[in-house]
């Protein structure tokens, strides 16, 4: 059963219908096969781009859709319901455009943003390093100012779309000054000295390529610096606050898919002469799963509406990410339980959903870091 | 310059459960998600292709309740230029003849229509009769079951394909009525830009009286056919299992032959 939504306008309804249609016709039928083969769905991202879905929450002036987060996130959720790897990819692409859209000069935005939002290009976001994950301010990839270029050396880790992306929004160290020594660069994928390592062999989301990106004397023109030197960590954390909402929406989509599968199975499967949904042990599990999905949706939408009104939303975004991804882990695990032995086989999608649900608890700020963010906000309040 | 009218219909989504209403056995349009019929998306696509290759305007025409505006907007967001929506409670339960009369009256009001494109049959309570009846009422040639359409100057050529008769090549002078099959094309998706543009496109809403059609010619009471009884489809029965003891292949072939599948 598709999620029931309250949307603010007819255009928003039509946009979500379009996303649902593309998800159902073009994404869902391919997901299992591509995941099995670890095949990156580049063509499907092009279709999303052609349909105008790769720049939704950014200004129309640069080719974006100018839609509020409340609407963009529900589009994202529909895509993730059909195929988590594509949903997360869309979220990461959108996050990778944040730095230029919010911190670039008009000249920079005129030059690069239309192509990034226009649908042909795919973005990546490069903050983490092998030794700088949760402690992002410890990153050590060096960028040395030389003439009108930066010369970059170092390794970025866990890069979604690593080797597939057309541009990398990259945080580099321009001075030894801890969190204040970090700078944001918009790195073109064709940059000489930039290469991708072998993709990681992951537990799930295998169609989404994740790889280290290696900078070996890579030269990036100074005109591709976004914001000032030293402003990078702030840009990175702001991007993540919005990106977190995207991950929350994806997690809700994934949980919705697992719930739908479990309900359908429980209605069909009979034991002791009755469909198993008629047993209280099963129906209560399904009811709890529905409650988990819908409360997580309400949580991310509340945070999104705050963001759309220009209100602070860091705490709400962290709560949404924490709740939505923990709930998705629980719901997908329970979906496997409801399908029983069938659920444990690759003939049904729920074991894949369960594997896919694990990483959202880890990336874009582990759920332990989310708690840290929430607690910090609590401490700040009087 | 080819001005095209595309007939579109809002139907219950084939993914959702569809049923007839208990009171009068007409289609229960409230119980299911409603969408633009897929065959109509193909009809819109064909019209857009023709006008994009040359010139002209695409008008979508729908007869249906108020809620059919959603299906009209979908066609407009794909790229159609304007719409006419005939909506009138008196139309409830109309048969194909009444429906075709209303459509004909709506088309006669439009200026310079060169081509009318419809789906060959709708996926809901469809008889597949509207395109042919409409052509008769308008005195236009009918080219039905088209799997390909070419318009050159004032001439239209169509490859007509049916299961029984194979492929026939048809040619007619415009204006004409064409109905297309699902082989005609792959319809485009709307884009977000198309969705935003659609809300500014003109939609004219008309009643039966606006069209000068007599209310006694339409609706369930005046239909030439009546549904007297309806029952839900029986649940699917368990399939037939064939044990392979050396002759499994033969048994499967026999089964398929009995079903007239081979």
Automatic annotation (TrEMBL), chain A:
Required co-factor? FAD
InterPro entries found in the cross-reference section:
Acyl-CoA_DH_CS, Acyl-CoA_Oxase/DH_mid-dom, Acyl-CoA_Oxase/DH_mid-dom_sf, AcylCo_DH-like_C, AcylCo_DH/oxidase_C, AcylCoA_DH/ox_N, AcylCoA_DH/ox_N_sf, AcylCoA_DH/oxidase_NM_dom_sf
Task: Name the source organism.
Answer: Thermocrispum agreste
The alphabetical list of record keywords is: FAD, Flavoprotein, Oxidoreductase
Residue ranges constituting the Acyl-CoA oxidase/dehydrogenase middle domain according to the UniProt record: 124-217
Please report which protein family the annotation says this sequence is part of: Belongs to the acyl-CoA dehydrogenase family.
Recorded GO molecular functions are: acyl-CoA dehydrogenase activity; flavin adenine dinucleotide binding
- Could you tell me what this protein is called? Acyl-CoA dehydrogenase
Domain Acyl-CoA dehydrogenase/oxidase N-terminal: residue ranges: 10-119
Task: Give all residue intervals belonging to the Acyl-CoA dehydrogenase/oxidase C-terminal domain.
Answer: 230-378
Annotated SUPFAM superfamilies: Acyl-CoA dehydrogenase C-terminal domain-like, Acyl-CoA dehydrogenase NM domain-like
Question: Which domain of life does this protein belong to?
Answer: Bacteria
Automatic annotation (TrEMBL), chain B:
Sorted alphabetically, which CDD domains does this protein's record hold?
ETF_beta (cd01714)
List residues of the Electron transfer flavoprotein alpha/beta-subunit N-terminal domain.
24-215
- One GO CC annotation: cytosol
Keywords attached to this Swiss-Prot or TrEMBL record, sorted alphabetically, are:
Electron transport, Transport
Q: Which GO terms describe its molecular function?
A: electron transfer activity
Which InterPro entries does UniProt cross-reference here? ETF_a/b_N, ETF_b, ETF_beta_N, Rossmann-like_a/b/a_fold
Q: Which residues form the signal peptide?
A: none
**Cofactor(s), by name:** FAD
Q: Name a Pfam family for this protein.
A: ETF
Q: What does this protein do?
A: The electron transfer flavoprotein serves as a specific electron acceptor for other dehydrogenases. It transfers the electrons to the main respiratory chain via ETF-ubiquinone oxidoreductase (ETF dehydrogenase).
The similarity annotation says: Belongs to the ETF beta-subunit/FixA family.
How this chain assembles, per its entry, is:
Heterodimer of an alpha and a beta subunit.
| Name of the protein | Electron transfer flavoprotein subunit beta
């Amino acid at each position: 059963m598709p999620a029931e939504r309250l949307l603010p306008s007819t255009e928003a309804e039509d946009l979500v219908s379009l996303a649902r249609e593309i998800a159902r016709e073009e994404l869902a039928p391919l997901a299992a096969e591509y995941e099995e083969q670890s095949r990156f769905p580049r063509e499907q991202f092009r279709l999303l781009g052609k349909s105008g879905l790769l720049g939704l929450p950014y200004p129309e002036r640069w080719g974006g859709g100018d839609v509020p987060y409340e609407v963009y996130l529900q589009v994202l959720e529909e895509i993730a319901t059909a195929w988590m790897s594509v949903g997360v990819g869309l979220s990461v692409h959108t996050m990778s455009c944040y730095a230029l859209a919010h911190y670039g000069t008009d000249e920079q935005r005129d030059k690069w943003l239309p192509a990034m939002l226009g649908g042909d290009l795919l973005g990546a976001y490069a903050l983490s390093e092998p030794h700088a994950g949760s402690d992002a301010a410890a990153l050590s990839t060096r960028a040395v100012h030389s003439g009108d270029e930066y010369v970059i050396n170092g390794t970025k880790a866990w890069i979604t779309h690593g080797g597939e992306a057309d541009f990398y929004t990259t945080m580099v160290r321009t001075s030894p000054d801890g969190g204040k020594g970090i700078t944001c660069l918009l790195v073109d994928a064709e940059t000489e000295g930039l290469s991708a390592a072998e993709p990681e062999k992951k537990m799930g989301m295998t169609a989404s390529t994740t790889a280290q990106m290696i900078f070996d004397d890579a030269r990036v023109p100074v005109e591709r610096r976004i914001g000032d030197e030293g402003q990078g960590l702030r840009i990175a954390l702001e991007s993540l606050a919005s990106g977190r909402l995207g991950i929350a929406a994806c997690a809700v989509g994934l949980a919705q898919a697992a719930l739908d599968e479990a309900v359908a199975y429980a209605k069909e499967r009979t034991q002791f002469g009755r469909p198993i949904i008629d047993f209280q042990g099963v129906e209560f599990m399904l009811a709890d799963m529905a409650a988990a999905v819908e409360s997580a949706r309400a949580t991310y939408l509340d945070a999104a509406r705050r963001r759309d009104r220009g209100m602070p939303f860091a705490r709400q975004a962290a709560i949404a990410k924490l709740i939505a991804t923990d709930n998705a882990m629980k719901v997908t695990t329970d979906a496997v339980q409801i399908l029983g032995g069938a659920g444990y086989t690759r003939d049904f999608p729920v074991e894949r959903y369960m594997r896919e649900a694990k990483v959202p608890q880890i990336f874009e700020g582990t759920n332990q870091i989310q708690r840290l963010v929430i607690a910090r906000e609590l401490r700040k309040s009087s | 310059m080819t001005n095209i009218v595309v007939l579109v219909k809002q139907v219950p989504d084939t993914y959702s459960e569809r049923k007839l209403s208990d009171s009068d056995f007409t289609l229960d349009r409230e119980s299911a998600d409603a969408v633009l019929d897929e065959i109509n998306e193909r009809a819109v696509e064909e019209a857009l292709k023709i006008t994009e290759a040359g010139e002209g305007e695409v008008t979508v025409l729908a007869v249906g309740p108020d809620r059919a505006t959603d299906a009209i907007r979908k066609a407009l967001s794909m790229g159609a230029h304007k719409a006419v929506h005939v909506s009138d409670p008196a139309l409830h339960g109309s048969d194909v003849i009444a429906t075709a009369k209303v459509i004909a009256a709506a088309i006669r009001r439009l200026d310079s229509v060169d081509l009318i494109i419809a789906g060959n049959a709708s996926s809901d309570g469809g008889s597949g009769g509207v395109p042919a009846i409409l052509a008769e009422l308008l005195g236009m040639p009918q080219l039905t079951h088209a799997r390909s359409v070419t318009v050159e100057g004032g001439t239209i050529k169509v490859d007509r394909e049916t299961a029984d008769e194979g492929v026939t090549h048809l040619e007619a002078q415009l204006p004409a009525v064409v109905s297309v099959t699902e082989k005609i094309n792959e319809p485009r998706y709307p884009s977000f830009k198309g969705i935003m543009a659609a809300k500014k496109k003109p939609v004219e809403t008309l009643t039966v009286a606006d069209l000068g059609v007599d209310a006694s010619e339409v609706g369930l009471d005046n239909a030439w056919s009546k549904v007297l009884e309806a029952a839900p489809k029986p649940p699917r029965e368990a399939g037939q299992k064939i044990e392979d003891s050396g002759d499994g292949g033969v048994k499967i072939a026999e089964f398929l032959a009995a079903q007239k599948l081979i």
